[in-house]
């Protein structure tokens, strides 16, 4: 069923994110029949261009970012027929009258702030001043939502001046990923796992988000952020929350977000010795400083940390998080290692390993459970570990093309469902935990160097070794 008629204004419409993610996602949902032919998608940006020029740009973005078998000329022409453009300046009155005229009073209004956070305040004010910030409208903001707790609080306060929390949709695109939502389906849709999902049965949990790409082209932003602000404060924190939270009483926005918030609040401060920061060196391709186009920089492109949660469920079970650029492979997974059986009736058996449940987030999305079985043959009771391996693509068939995270989130936004968006207090709590971690290394040593294509700095291996554990291989 298509969502009801709406006018969606994308501010920053000529920018990279809008062209690469937002507009292609809208096209795909339009083609799938979920967006009605009467919708208006209005690009707004400082650029002085007309609608045909903007449509040409949008078509270029779609051609480049939507798989060829998911585009066709007919739907593209119909989609572009619903696309308009208003040159606009967030900090002056230029262009606003034209936008007000274009917006239809009787349909839903969504304002997508695909711009830097420094413009959020101006946009909110202008929408209000021009009378188009009606109580039913929604606004969408992208990460980074602030740079620290103080700036995030300020942004929340700025938005709260003109909008209620129910109108504000803060995107963390990891929540739109199918397999991230699958974390919840696996936990709460099966009886098998949840009873064991606690410190008593879980030895430790590893969350890895490894990337093979570097920071070229984004150095200006990245060098001010680093891996901690770019990935841990948001995406990895969300993964951690979904794994660690108590079962919400229903799958509803506030029920879910209340439980996530409790996890963030229960995080212990990270000890300086439990953090490893790294920066990639040059190999066949340039190293971090050249990629980021900065001189000397102490910004981390890799981080590994041991995180503890102070509550009944998790006391005594550490979570190890690592993420980095220019690593061996693009590979993200959550691995839950269970404790050994309390007593082995088979004596010492080299083939017996701990059970591990691996949820692969990308690529090759799927679930793998390592179990111990008897080695076949007459050689007596010899144990061996085998994987129960389920690839979603194989098990569910190709009819289930995994939609891009933005498609899911944009449809939820158009339907007004905030479940997969972050609430203001959640973002602030995440910064409240992140800020002291960052402050603690300010006067500390520079990040450890690591070779491109490796698994990160040696010190990250040591972080595990000293706890008699090992990172899983990145592959
Ligand atoms: C973004 C970060 O939020 O997420 C990038 O700013 C990172 O640095 C990206 O590369 C990773 O997203 P994905 O969907 O490719 O895993």
Automatic annotation (TrEMBL):
NADP(+) binds at residues 46, 143. Pathway: Carbohydrate degradation; pentose phosphate pathway; D-ribulose 5-phosphate from D-glucose 6-phosphate (oxidative stage): step 1/3. Its EC number is 1.1.1.49. One of its GO terms (biological process) is glucose metabolic process. Keywords: Carbohydrate metabolism, Glucose metabolism, NADP, Oxidoreductase. InterPro entries: G6P_DH, G6P_DH_AS, G6P_DH_C, G6P_DH_NAD-bd, NAD(P)-bd_dom_sf. GO terms for cellular component: cytosol. It comes from the Bacteria. It holds the Pfam family G6PD_C. Residues 9-182 form the Glucose-6-phosphate dehydrogenase NAD-binding domain. The active site is at 235 (proton acceptor). Gene3D superfamilies: Dihydrodipicolinate Reductase, domain 2, NAD(P)-binding Rossmann-like Domain. Substrate binds at residues 173, 177, 211, 230, 325. It catalyses: D-glucose 6-phosphate + NADP(+) = 6-phospho-D-glucono-1,5-lactone + NADPH + H(+). Residues 184-472 form the Glucose-6-phosphate dehydrogenase C-terminal domain. One of its GO terms (molecular function) is glucose-6-phosphate dehydrogenase activity. NCBIfam families: zwf. HAMAP family: G6PD (MF_00966). Belongs to the glucose-6-phosphate dehydrogenase family. Catalyzes the oxidation of glucose 6-phosphate to 6-phosphogluconolactone. This is Glucose-6-phosphate 1-dehydrogenase. It comes from Rhodovulum imhoffii.
